[in-house]
Amino acid sequence: MKINRLHLAVLAAMLGSAALAGCKKKEEPAPLPPAAETTPAPAPAPAAMPATTSVNSVDLGNAVGADMRVTAPMTSFTPKDTIIAAVSTGTSDPAASVAGKLGAKWTHVDSNQTVHEESKDITFAGDNVTDFQISKPDGWPTGKYKVEISLDGNVVQTREFEVK
């Protein structure tokens, strides 16, 4: 009987081991470390836009002051007048210098004839005034005229006037 008891003891030990192994909890995977707080990378600074030039105004007259501005704006002239277009320009960045071409095309509207055309290479910096002039010693024909001001080849302002 000793053998049976020994067998039973071994059998009980084996069954107990098997039961314990079967009841054993499955191990949970180790928790992940907490996600590191991330701060979004700062957005790259916008690329600096190059400075631009614009024509702010065009005044017509027959005389300019020391500042190159028309002293008395006019839209009607006599045949013997010198006609001046004072073109006021500005740059988007007053500290920057911008090279460009400013032009004036004078036209006798009644005959659709170009009277004079001129352009100037200019280095714009901040606010400036550039003048264009036309004169005719023997006198302008009466009628309607216009001057087209262009910046880098593009017409940006037009002024109409009359010679009486």
Automatic annotation (TrEMBL):
Signal peptide: 1-21
Protein keywords: Signal
Region feature (Disordered): 26-52
UniProt-recorded name of the protein: Lipoprotein
Keyword Signal listed: yes
Domain of life of the native organism: Bacteria
